[in-house]
Specification:
- By secondary structure, this protein is α/β, with parallel strands linked by helices.
- The chain has one domain (2-333): TIM Barrel.
- It is 35% helix and 16% strand.
- The strands form three sheets. It has an eight-stranded parallel barrel, surrounded by six helices. A two-stranded antiparallel ribbon has the order 4-5. A two-stranded antiparallel sheet has the order 10-11.
- Helix 8 (174-195) packs across helix 9.
- Residues 344-350 have low confidence and may be disordered.
Length: 350
């Protein structure tokens, strides 16, 4: 297994729609990160090279980010070359509504004949994806095209958004949501296979891993797997240790984070919030043991650190402390070995 970096770690530093030097950030009354120890990307410039350098600075093996950042195949191919020169593996992602109705989902067969969707950072917010144009299937197909050009093997499909159905939604009922997810993923699986890409569902504080496992069983394709999040299951009242046991056999990558769970506060409510890895309530080491034993390809399994403190806290200190803890307490898991996570063209496991 290997350690990587999720670009989400630097959301408050490098995402144009979230960085702390924006006027609307200050107008919202947020605390200012006066003591940040890292210089953000230059204003108006793509942060892609900056993300690569941050991964290299921490001695990590891979980088995860939305394929929409590339915009065009040419930019994606240039990114691929820079990643290869840095010795880094790429995990792609895109935000799509997996439980969309047939009308909102559309059909991948017609996606390429319509106006191509695109990712526009100027339209993104903390609650909006920034992807515009076309159906949900069309967005997914465009993300796959860019991911393939950038050299990805796995594309994570992130459902979670506040305005989308989730585990707690009553209309439509949960069972109907899961049925829609199965249907929609089945339409994408042949497209992904044709590109040699593995699709992966990803829990993002929306559904339980038990529910994602049900969806994966329903799709029943070696080209549809899972990106496991170490802590987001807490948001849907699912124990992280039980969550990993549900999806370990489908897991081709993870977002590695920790959270502290506080059952009661001074105002008699519970809370959970991010911490440096090793300082929270998530049994990280035990979960790594399960993934090492049950994941389909443990040697090729990348764990992307997603360490996201509040914006006023120095993210470099949290990330550095997390990497140190993982290399000290979980050193036995990290290696340079592993095969591709993509199935063979015959659909068998690698």
């Amino acid at each position: 297994m290997k350690l990587g970096l999720s670009a989400e770690t630097y959301r408050w530093v490098a995402f144009p729609w979230m960085c702390a030097d924006r006027a609307d950030f200050r107008a919202a009354g947020r605390l200012i990160p006066y003591f940040a120890s890292i210089t953000p990307p230059a204003a108006g410039e793509s942060p892609l090279d900056w993300f690569i350098e941050r991964a290299r600075a921490h001695g990590l093996a891979s980088l995860a980010l939305d394929s929409g950042w590339f915009g065009t195949e040419a930019h994606a191919q240039a990114f691929r070359a820079r990643m290869a020169a840095a010795g880094l593996t790429y995990l792609a992602s895109v935000s799509v509504e997996l439980a969309a109705t047939p009308e909102a989902w559309g059909t991948p067969a017609t996606a390429r004949s319509r106006r191509r969707p695109q990712f526009d950072p100027a339209l993104a917010t903390s609650l909006r994806t920034g992807w515009t144009g076309g159906s949900q299937a069309a967005i997914a197909v465009r993300a796959l095209e860019l991911a393939a050009a950038a050299g990805a093997e796995v594309v994570s499909l992130v459902h979670g958004q506040p305005d989308r159905p989730n585990h707690f939604t009553k209309d439509p009922p949960l069972a109907q949501q899961l049925d829609r997810m199965v249907r929609n993923l089945r339409t994408l699986a042949p497209i992904a296979e044709g590109m040699g890409l593995v699709l992966a569902t990803e829990g993002h504080m929306d559904y339980r891993c038990a529910e994602y496992a049900q969806v994966l069983e329903g799709v029943n394709s070696p080209w549809v797997r899972h990106v496991f999040d170490f802590a987001d299951s807490i948001a849907v009242n699912e124990d992280p240790l039980e969550a990993v046991q549900r999806v370990a056999k489908y897991t081709v990558a993870s977002h590695l984070k920790d959270m502290r769970v506080q059952p009661i506060t001074e105002i008699a409510t519970g809370a959970f919030f991010h911490t440096p890895i090793g300082q929270g309530s998530v049994p990280v080491e035990r979960m790594l043991e399960i993934l090492a034993a049950q994941a389909p390809n443990p040697g090729g399994l990348h764990h992307y650190l997603e360490v996201t403190p509040p914006p006023e806290i120095d993210v470099e200190r949290w990330l550095g402390a997390s990497v140190e803890w993982l290399r000290t307490h979980c050193a036995r898991f990290w290696s340079r070995g592993g095969q591709s996570n993509a199935p063979t063209k015959q659909g068998s496991a690698p």
